[in-house]
Amino acid sequence: MTESLQILATLAAAQIAIAIAPGQNTVLVVHAGAHDRRLGLAVAAGIWPVGILWAIGSLAGLGTLFAALPQLAEAMRLACGLYLIWLGAKAIRRSFTAPVLAAVSADPMTPAGALRAGALSTLTNPKAIAYYMSIFTATGAYALSPMEQALAAVLMPTISSLWYALLAVFVSSRPVATVIDRGRSWFDRLAGLTMIGFGARLLASRG
Fold it and tell me: pTM here?
């Protein structure tokens, strides 16, 4: 195996581990997918292009801009934290709505909204660029050819989005959906509280 292939294989393995580890995107996908498979897949689809954007930006030296303008990363951190708290509050509020009313609510979960949630959650997370910078540095990806770097930039977010898509399919499968439906309100409240927790932790973090 050539050095380039070793680097790409290492990046892929690292991305699989990162994707499987529970995080805010996992919660968003599971919560949306538990309501409707299309919603979970929409969240995964929204995460994918932003992941590519961050990967390309890291390879292009976007991290230097963040280092020179720490207030930009700070603004993104606050935006991401507040957005997650807002999503969590919406999920909790929806959990207290009667099922019949929730179906005709003026504030339903839609594929467009799920797509936007996945994109905004990833776009406003300053830790995404830090992750790509660190993993590219640790593996020596900056020494890859432009074509190989482009492959890495597409490969890594694709791995994550495929995992999230599989997760959406799993939670929306009949056996799992049946279990979730039995405690739908409590599931939504738990998901909402988890999102609020991620948002609060992000707001409390520094650097």
Answer: 0.82
